[in-house]
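HOLO CASE FILE
Compound: zinc ion
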Amino acid sequence: MFGQVSRTPYDIEFSLLGIPARIHPLFWLVSVIFGWQLGRPDLVVIWVMCVFLSILVHEMGHALMARAFGYWPHIVLHHFGGYASFTPGRGYSAWTSIAILLAGPLAGFVFFGVVLLLEIVLDRAGVNLNQQLLVAFGMLGYINLYWGLVNLLPVLPLDGGQICRDVLSLFRRVDSELWSLRISVGVGFAMALLFYRLEARYAAVLFGLLALMSLQSLGARNERW
Ligand SMILES: [Zn+2]
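Model generated. Tokens follow.
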């Protein structure tokens, strides 16, 4: 979500369903930092694995939808996030972009549904789930449902912010870049305040920073909020 990330000798590269994927070493480091407060090495490892799986599923959603439209995407995971990159070609429109953007969070929601179903089936079958597995189920739910919904907020450069810009671009008389930035600043600061009140400090800082980035982009365009 923050542009192209350069290669390092420590990148892990593989291909999944024909989509090339690359993991930057900072992805692991930042995931560990965010999970450090869990306080137990086994829980930190489970957390990192859950983050990895969830973000991979999310980016695969974007990538497979882009592939369905005939583009050749690749995935990069980095700094507690990732992106699916491709060169838009013939027939690319706001609708194509909206479909590709929605496919990421949607893949996460489907993944969440599968995990929930698995948990119910195992429970009904009387399988005694150990504590680590239960923790992993909880984490997968938190990341895929909670962060999936948060990612749909109309704040740039989150998927929701980009969808908002694409939807506005469907209206000819609206400057979609300008208005998506203005919405991004307003919603971004409001969410920062809300998360602060809910004592979700990371989320409050993140949304504050995103709102400031949008405000800066408005300034670069000589526009005011
Ligand atoms: Zn996404």
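CASE NOTES: Residues 31 and 80 are 6 Å apart (CA to CA). The chain has two domains: 1-151, 153-225.
CLOSED: yes
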